[in-house]
UniProtKB/TrEMBL annotation:
This is PASTA domain-containing protein. Residues 217-231 have a biased composition (Low complexity). It holds the Pfam family PASTA. It comes from the Bacteria.
Amino acid sequence: MKSKEFFGKFLDRRLWGNLLAMAVVVAALCFGVKYGLDVYTHHGEEIPVPNVRGMGFNEARALIESNGLRVAVADTGYNKRMPADCVLLQTPMGGARVKSGRMVYLTVNSESTPTLTIPDIADNSSVREAEARLKAMGFRLTPPEEVTGEKDWVYGIKARGRRVGMGDRVPIDVPLTLMVGSGTYDDSLMDINYVDPAEVTVTYGGEDDFEVVGEQAGETQAQGGIATQAEAGKEGAQ
C-alpha cells in the first residue's frame, strides 16, 4: 500500500462518520448517566422532616408519608407517663432536611411494661459487679440489704420484697434490692461440735444374752406346765 493511499483512508467520509457517531453515543451516555443519577438520588431536593414525637403512630405515619418520606418502626420503649403506641423518638429528628423518599425511623411506646430476665448474680459476684451488670441491663436498684455473710458478696436479689433468682422475669420498672454480706457471721453456728462417724461405737447385746433369755423362757414355760398339772390333780381328787 502506497503512502498516498494510506493517508487517503483518513479522509474517507465513512470513517469520520463512524467516529462522529461514536462521539455522539458517548456524550449521550455521559449525559444520561449524570441526569439519571440526579433523578435517582433526588439531587438538590430537600424536604423538612416533620416533628412527630408524642403523636400516635398512625397519625405520625400519615404525616410523614404526606411529606414524601417513608416510615418504619425501629424499636419499642416504655414510658408509663405516655400513652401506648405513641412516638417516643424519631430519626432523623424533626426539622432536619432530607431528600425525598428518605426513611424515618420511629421508637414507639409499648402497651405493657417490658420484662427482663434476672442474670446469674446471686452467690456469683460482688456487689460492684452485680450493680454494674444490672444497671447496664436497665434495672433500677434500691440500697442493698445487709445479711450475714462475707462482706460485699451478693447472696440474693429481691423484687417487691420477694426473693427472685436466675431466669425469673421482672418488670423493668420494679426496683431490685441486692442482699449483700455484711462481713459478720452467726456465732451459734460456730458452737456446733461435729463428731466423726468413724469414732462412734455402738454396743449390742452378745450371743450369751440371747441364750440366757432363751433358757429363762424355757424354765418359765416348764414351771407353768408343772403348776397346771398340779391344779388339775387337785380338781380330780375333789
